[in-house]
């Protein structure tokens, strides 16, 4: 797996921040010039045909990676925007109170989006102290009074992985809709959207997919798609964008009804290229490599290791809590050019395909011996 290290731009030091921004592929720049710039530079035509082809490549590869259909994906700038659009599009929104279950560990932006998307919303938060990888916790909170269940596949501050299939199963038993956030799991944990059968999935490609910011997306279950009426629309949401009749709007039959006006293109060119790379490597292989390095880290520093250690409950990120030594060790890591960050429960360490045993050993050495 270390051969993959050569495929990425890595500066000197040890980069362990893939939960934040994944490194850029060396081939991305040439691909971007070919797919985005050359059609614009060289032909006496508008480049939309090639640009839209780049977006189709993006949704096609997402469909391959996530085991679904390209027509169920729609580009979105980020997760917050996708979530807002989805929440506002549902038949019950604006008609009655909607009670949503989410966790205090969810990324705050997800709460902000939901609180503001609907006037009549009641959010029930699962307390931060509870284990989000424990199915019993979800079972306890999901009941007939809940309308929607929001799940993060991965909670990046605690390194926990939610049991998404089981949660969706409980939710269905109580007639709840389900929304899954895959920001922190795409391209590092295997995901099968057809098996999950959630109502909506939102994600982006800036983290483990190494594709830079701006290439978010929404996936909508085909059974509920016909009932979704997005409020934030534009000509690219129309079934036939080139009809140009201001009196006639027909939502696209695919998830593109969530698209909007003239789309941005550049982020999806990068993302299509990068996702293609991970589809070729195989997410299973990425996870094996990631889990192997997490296991080594846990074996070397068990006294500081706070995130789960089982493969089905841990995410791609390890959380290390140094207690009273936190500031000192953080400063030492910085001096040694070991790029990590810290959140509420400790330091976050995310080994990707471009990391190897040497990166983990360097970190362990700094922690143990300064
Ligand atoms: C779990 C999770 N969800 C969502 C986001 C980001 O959401 P958005 O794309 O709206 O900025 C992050 C960013 O770190 C995240 O970790």
TrEMBL record:
<feature type="domain" description="Aminotransferase class V">
    <location>
        <begin position="100"/>
        <end position="363"/>
    </location>
</feature>
<keyword id="KW-0663">Pyridoxal phosphate</keyword>
<dbReference type="Pfam" id="PF00266">
    <property type="entry name" value="Aminotran_5"/>
</dbReference>
<dbReference type="InterPro" id="IPR015424">
    <property type="entry name" value="PyrdxlP-dep_Trfase"/>
</dbReference>
<dbReference type="InterPro" id="IPR015422">
    <property type="entry name" value="PyrdxlP-dep_Trfase_small"/>
</dbReference>
<protein>
    <submittedName>
        <fullName>Aminotransferase</fullName>
    </submittedName>
</protein>
<keyword id="KW-0032">Aminotransferase</keyword>
<keyword id="KW-0808">Transferase</keyword>
<dbReference type="InterPro" id="IPR015421">
    <property type="entry name" value="PyrdxlP-dep_Trfase_major"/>
</dbReference>
<dbReference type="GO" id="GO:0008483">
    <property type="term" value="F:transaminase activity"/>
</dbReference>
<dbReference type="InterPro" id="IPR000192">
    <property type="entry name" value="Aminotrans_V_dom"/>
</dbReference>
